[in-house]
Amino acid sequence: MTTIEIPRPVVGDVVELIINDHRFFESLLRALRDASADRGAAREALSHALIAHGEAEESEVYPKLARKDAISGQEEHHGKKEHAKGNAALLALLECKGTSTQKFDDAVEELATALNHHIGEEEQTILNGARNDVPDATRRDLGQSWAARRNQLLDEGCGDIEKVREIVASEAELLQESESQ
Ligand SMILES: [Fe+2]
Ligand SMILES: [Fe+2]
Questions:
Q1: What DSSP string runs through 122-136?
Q2: 39 neighbors 100 (Cβ within 8 angstroms)
Q3: Please, are residues 84 and 171 in contact by the beta-carbon 8 Å criterion?
Q4: How far is the CA of 153 from the centre of ligand 2 (A)?
Q5: Which of 58, 3, 48, 1 is nearest to 25 (CA)?
Q6: For residue 78, how far is its CA from the centre of ligand 2 (angstroms)?
Q7: So what's the pLDDT on residue 52?
Q8: Where would one find coiled-coil regions in this protein (predicted)?
Q9: Which residues of the chain have pLDDT under 50?
């Protein structure tokens, strides 16, 4: 299996950095649907990139935007719930033994549904809050702290299956909330 390199920016506007990662997820989802692609490598890259991205948003971006009233506490909470859904779907994909089975294809579709929904909604709500209500210099500061946290998580192997299991277990309550809606 080859390894797909995950981009590791260190500076930039937080909105642009986050959107670039969303585009990267979409390209990996496309590879996961492609029988001629190295789907094992795409799955591994997506796991690390997605966990690092979402965890860094939750610790470095969402709370700071909420404090600046660029997003509401409810939007912040909703974003976390959607991360929990995506992480659970990611874990189901990681648990698949083979990469050319119906089970794998179904898990890819589940993950794509959760991710595409959250990516679209985040760009339409949370990121517009940052675009409209946060000055450029602050967006760069947020970009730097998000990127630093994300790179640290990547260094720690945040997308290894045992780590993803722990994260999903810690988000059980959030997941239950979204299932009861
Ligand atoms: Fe995001
Ligand atoms: Fe997010």
A1: HHHTHHHHHHHHS-H
A2: yes
A3: yes
A4: 16
A5: 48
A6: 9
A7: 98
A8: none
A9: none
SS (H, E, C) 26-86: HHHHHHHCCCCCCHHHHHHHHHHHHHHHHHHHHHHHHHHHHHCCCCCHHHHHHHHHHHHHH
Question: Residue holding tokens 């780590």?
Answer: 163
pLDDT in tens, 21-56: 999 999 999 999 999 999 999 999 999 999 999 999
120: number of Cβ within 10 Å: 11
Ligand 1: centre distance to CA 100 (Å): 28
Which secondary structure element, helix H or strand E, spans residue 148, and what is its range?
A: helix 136-155
Residue the block writes with tokens 């989802």: 29
CB neighbour list of residue 3: distance below 8 Å, 6 or more residues apart = 41, 44, 45
Token readout for 3 is 């390894």
Ligand 1 geometric centre to CA of 75 (Å): 13
How far, in Å, is the centroid of ligand 1 from the Cα of 5? 19
Q: What's the CA angle centered on 151, arms 47 and 161, to 5 degrees?
A: 25
| 56-67 pLDDT per residue, tens | 999 999 999 999
DSSP state of 5: P
